[in-house]
Input
Amino acid sequence: MAGTPTYARRRVGAELRRWRTAVDLSGEDVADACGWDKSKISRIENAKVALTPRDLRRLCTLYGLESADAVRLETLLTEPSGPRWWARYADFLNPAYEELICLESQASSVHAANANLVVGLLQTRDYATAVMTSGPSIPDPDHREALVEVRMKRQRVLVGDRPITLDAVISEAALLCEIGGRKVLAEQLEHLLGITELPNVNLRVLPITSTANAFNGGLTLYGFPEPHDPSVLFIEYHAGTLIRDEERDIRRHRRQLEYLIANSLSAHESREHISRRLKTL
Output
C-alpha cells in the first residue's frame, strides 16, 4: 500500500539510521563522505527533510546495501501516495495535526490516554463540537465545522478492511464532566458502549480516586505494521501539540501509558462503570 509522504520519509529515515549504525558510521562521517552539511543526515533520518532518489542511492551505496534493499527503499520513497482525504481541509489544519492524520491513516495500533476528555477517535459529533467551543483554543466559527468533520472522518480507521487496534484510557472525570450538557454526554456514553463492542477497540476508565490521575493533557502513541517502523508520540497540552519520535521519549511515555492501563478498571469493568454513569443522566 502506498504510504503518505510523511510516513514514507519516517520509514526510510529509520531504515537508513539502522543501516548506518550497522556499518559503524556516524552522521558526521556520512555527511563528510557526501559533502553535505553535518546536520543533513540527522534531518533525513528524522524525516525533517525530503530525500531525493539520487541522495538515497548515494547513501545505499555508502552503507553497502544489497540492490534489492535499495530498490525497496526507493520504491517506498517515490511511490505515489494513496488518496489523502484530509487535503481538502488543508486551510484549517496546522502542520502537527496534519501529520497526526497522515500517520494515523497508516498506523496499525494506537494507544491513547486523556485526563479530562473522551479521546478524539471515540467522540461523537456533538461532543466534539462542544469540546471545540469550550476549550482553551476555540477555533474560528468558520473553521469549527470543518474541524469537527475532520475528527469524524478520522474515526474511519476503526472500521473497514484494515482497522487499527485502539487501546484507550480516559479518566473517570471525563464521564462526570457534562461537556455540552447532559444530553450530549448521555449520547457520548451510549456511543462508548456501542463502539467498545468492536473487537479492535479497548477502553479503560481510570478511577478518579487513583493517584495515576496526576497526568495532564493527552497522549497518543502510534505503532506501525513494519518491524522497523518507528513509533510516533503526540502530546497534547493546553497550548498545542508536541510530536516526539526519539527512542528515549517513546520508552518513557510508553511506560506512562502502561502505568495508566495498570491502574485502570478492566475493559469489562469500565463498560459497567460507563453504563452506571449513563443511568444517572
User: Anything to note?
Assistant: The longest strand covers residues 165-171. The radius of gyration is 21 Å. Strands lie at 109-114, 165-171, 201-206, 218-223, 232-237, 240-244. The chain is about 50% helix and 15% strand.
